Amino acid sequence: MTDCLFCKIVAKQVPAEIVLEAGRALAFRDINPQAPTHVLVVPKSHYENAAALAAADDGLADDVLKACHAVAVQEGVADSGYRIVFNTGSGAGQTVFHVHAHVLGGRGLTWPPG
Ligand code: 5GP
Ligand code: ZN
């Protein structure tokens, strides 16, 4: 996708603080962090949302989930607890339509989310 912000980050056309590159997945810090650890994990290929990623049917969703856990370990939040969020659709707060998992940790996280 030529006009996708996260495709541009994957292509290194837009700078980002990359924390992990794991095969078909890439992790970088959110520009507007909501917790001490707030990392976005994306598949390098373009899928609009979690539903499209799940339908990719080639293990890609698995790679993204494994990369989320690897980020949590690397960030030191795996033991204290962390949250993985896929906002899916504008009604759920999705603003960038290249699927991304938010990996949040490093502080207490309340439930239900806002
Ligand atoms: P969504 O609202 O779609 O679930 O999440 C989009 C996330 O992307 C937001 O948390 C927002 O802060 C982050 N974001 C938006 N633009 C950029 C950017 O240019 N670079 C980075 N690293 N994050 C961004
Ligand atoms: Zn994209």
Outline the structure in words:
The structure is a single chain. With 114 residues, the chain is α+β, with helices and mostly antiparallel strands. Helix content is 25%, strand content 23%. It is built from three helices and five strands, in the order αβββααββ. Strands 1-2-3-5-4 form a five-stranded antiparallel beta sheet, with helices on one face. A hairpin with a 2-residue loop joins β1 and β2 (25-29). The longest helix is centred in the middle third of the chain and has 16 residues, at 60-75. The relative contact order is 0.22. The model has no long low-confidence stretch (mean pLDDT 97). Bound molecules: guanosine-5'-monophosphate and zinc ion. Residues 1, 4, 6-7, 46, 98 line the site of zinc ion (ZN).
Please give the structural blueprint.
Layout: H1 5-10, E1 18-22, E2 25-29, E3 37-43, H2 50-55, H3 60-75, E4 82-85, E5 101-105
Antiparallel strand pairs: 1-2, 2-3, 3-5, 4-5
The chain binds guanosine-5'-monophosphate and zinc ion.
Q: What's a quick, concise take on this entry?
A:
The chain is an alpha+beta fold and 114 residues long. It is built from 3 helices and 5 strands; from the N terminus they run H-E-E-E-H-H-E-E.
Helix content: 10-25%
Percent of sequence in beta strands: 15-25%
| Class per helix and strand makeup | alpha+beta
Give, in order, the helices and strands. HEEEHHEE
Present as ligands are:
guanosine-5'-monophosphate, zinc ion
Kindly, what is the distance between the CA atoms of the first and last residues, rounded to a whole number of angstroms?
A: 31 Å
The outline comes out as: globular
Mean pLDDT: 97
The residue ranges in which pLDDT falls below 50 over 5 or more consecutive positions are none
For the biggest sheet, the summary is: 5 strands, antiparallel
Our count of helices gives: 3
* Main sheet strand line-up: 1-2-3-5-4
- Radius of gyration of CA atoms, rounded to a whole number: 13 Å
Topology, number of strands: 5
